[in-house]
């Protein structure tokens, strides 16, 4: 099968996000200038550079009570900071609760019963029990083609790692089993690893 997206795919559901998988989930936490906290998952998320460490996430829809985007992007535009919380398999249900389209100003930490902690380098909360959390300062918001498509880039200014996830000096993802996003309504967890040496190692 071949299709051009401009012409449609002719299938019951869009296959695009099932093709580009698995995707890590960036659970983005923010605090607006009025001190209201927000937490929302984004599956268009990844690390993009080592030095300095940088990450990105993309928001692809809008809410009626935000100016052409969603809460996370609107608050980051205002404050210039955010945290990325890594989602473990055990947190799948509370992560899903936080994905609901609550009105602007709603604290998803409270709605989902998630304990928060205070970041050290930015004025922002993070998920206290997350396997890892990245404190970030905004570097750039890029408007992409499409009505509500924005990519947010941030420099990582602080890194939290849960102690039980460190084994022999390595951050071991099998200790918490990262939740990954697949297509449609599907997810997966990472529980097994294998290694490959590069030819020039």
From TrEMBL:
Q: List the molecular function annotations (GO) for this entry.
A: FMN binding; oxidoreductase activity, acting on the CH-NH group of donors, NAD or NADP as acceptor
Q: Which residues form the Flavin reductase like domain?
A: 18-173
One Pfam family matching this protein? Flavin_Reduct
Q: Which InterPro entries match?
A: Flavin_Rdtase-like_dom, Split_barrel_FMN-bd
Q: What is this protein called?
A: Flavin reductase
């Amino acid at each position: 099968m071949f299709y051009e997206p401009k012409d449609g795919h002719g299938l019951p559901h869009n296959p695009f996000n099932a093709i580009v998988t698995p995707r890590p989930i960036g659970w983005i936490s923010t605090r607006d200038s009025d001190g209201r906290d927000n937490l929302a998952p984004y599956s268009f998320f990844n690390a993009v550079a080592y030095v300095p460490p940088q990450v990105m996430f993309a928001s692809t829809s809008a809410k009626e009570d935000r100016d052409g985007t969603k809460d996370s992007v609107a608050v980051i535009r205002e404050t210039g900071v955010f945290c990325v919380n890594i989602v473990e398999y055990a947190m799948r249900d509370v992560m899903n609760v936080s994905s609901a389209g609550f009105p602007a100003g709603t604290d998803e930490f409270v709605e989902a019963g998630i304990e928060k902690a205070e970041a050290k380098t930015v004025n922002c909360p993070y998920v206290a029990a997350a396997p890892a959390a990245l404190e970030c300062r905004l570097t750039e918001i890029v408007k992409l083609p499409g009505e509500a498509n924005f990519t947010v880039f941030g420099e990582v200014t602080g890194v939290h790692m849960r102690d039980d996830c460190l084994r022999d000096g390595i951050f071991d993802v099998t200790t918490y089993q990262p939740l990954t996003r697949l297509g449609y309504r599907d997810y997966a967890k990472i529980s097994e690893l294998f290694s490959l040496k590069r030819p020039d190692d």
